[in-house]
Design goal:
By secondary structure, the protein is α+β, with helices and mostly antiparallel strands. The protein has helices at about 35-45, 50-55, 60-80, 150-155, 155-165, 170-190; strands at about 10, 20-30, 90-95, 100-105, 115-120, 125-130, 135-140, 200, 210-215, 225-230, 235-240, 245-255.
């Protein structure tokens, strides 16, 4: 997961993840040469409700990226479900704070696969595992962007003090490591922005990311993290509710690859 070469092409079905294994799949959602046929491919994998949601977005670029990310999710999950699954046949329900999950029959029974989606810049990132709740985040790493105000907003008092003590160059890198870990953490817990970002402390160091303290209800009994680069300019993070992350398998999905 330390280099771009680690991402293997996803062609056909995605192997079932073993317990404790996570499939990370990146999908390019913004192309310099994208044309109407390219956008139509993604729109064709969306339900009517999903198309309507995309159309409500005022910014056309954001609408295209949301559509591409959602369609990529459907195609990637179809590859994980297997059996020549039609992406449009997948049905979702949602938890108390709107975290989506797969359902497998009219009774609403949950599928054993757990997944999470994030997108930023040119990439969508999908994490898939078996049974354990997880969260994933990707952010475009703009090293020219001033970050102190965002750090004061998102980091706890202790996180901010440790971050502020770093040199300016390391602050820029540590900011995105910590920001993505915090986003992945709240998504793994299924709380989203209902959880105060300052109610828990995470480490910012590159190696051995970990939860230092949780001061909120519903704190996980166990959680493991991983930080990685999706490419040279996009920072990613993964959080999974278990004692240890046994293995990460990294893949890249492209339009049409599930049909080859």
């Amino acid at each position: 997961m330390k280099s771009e070469e680690a991402w293997r092409p996803l062609v056909g079905e995605l192997p079932p993840p073993a317990r404790g294994e996570v499939h990370l799949v990146r999908a390019r959602i913004a192309h310099a040469g994208a044309d109407e046929a390219h956008e139509a491919f993604f729109r064709g994998a969306l339900t009517g409700a999903e198309k309507a949601r995309a159309d409500r977005l005022i910014d056309p670029r954001r609408a295209r990226e949301w559509s591409a990310a959602r369609a990529s999710l459907r195609h990637i999950l179809a590859a994980a479900v297997g059996g020549a699954c039609d992406p449009l046949s997948l049905r979702f329900s949602a938890g108390p704070h709107k975290k989506p999950y797969l359902i497998t029959d009219p009774s609403g029974a949950a599928h054993h696969l757990r997944f999470n989606l994030s997108h930023s810049g040119v990439w969508a990132l999908v994490a898939i595992t078996s049974q354990d709740e997880l969260g994933v985040d990707v952010e475009y790493r703009d090293l020219e962007r001033p970050t102190p105000a965002l750090a004061r907003y998102a980091f706890s008092r202790d996180e901010y003090a440790r971050w502020e003590a770093l040199c300016e160059e390391e602050q820029k890198l540590a900011f995105y490591r910590l920001w993505t870990r915090k986003e992945a953490y709240i998504k793994a817990l299924g709380m989203g922005l209902h959880l105060d970002l300052k109610s828990f402390d995470l480490s910012h160091e590159e190696d051995a990311p970990r939860l230092l303290e949780a001061r909120h209800e519903g704190a996980p009994e166990a959680i493991a993290f991983e930080s990685f680069m999706v490419d040279g300019r996009h920072q990613g993070a993964l959080a999974i509710c278990r004692d240890a992350l046994e293995r990460i398998s990294s893949w890249e999905w492209s339009p049409g690859s599930d049909n080859e």
